[in-house]
């Protein structure tokens, strides 16, 4: 689902003068506010375009990036202290420790 911005053409309601509304790309644009039934118009918004992340940025965001090096061997290019550089299939002791990465 995409999120579209709409602006009230008259009085704003509890949604505010400009509000966001999730819709399928195949839905027709809203012509009235779903809250107050007042007239609204769809706004043209900036698209959110993500650029590729560096290995360092992925690591800072808590992701693990594995790069295939051989059949069943992967290099952990975002490894943290104490993690193995290479992860091998069938050897769980070489896998990253998720409990160190994910916190409640």
Give a brief outline of the structure.
With 104 residues, the protein is mostly beta strands.
Characterization of the model:
The protein is mostly beta strands and 104 residues long. Helix content is 10%, strand content 27%. The strands form two sheets. A three-stranded antiparallel β-sheet has the order 2-1-3, with no helix packed on it. It has helices at 55-60, 98-101, and strands at 2-8, 18-23, 40-42, 66-70, 73-76, 86-88. Strand 4 and strand 5 form a beta hairpin. The protein starts with a strand and ends with a helix. It is built from two helices and six strands; from the N terminus they run E-E-E-H-E-E-E-H. It has two domains: 2-42, no CATH class; 55-101, no CATH class. The radius of gyration is 23 Å and the shape is elongated.
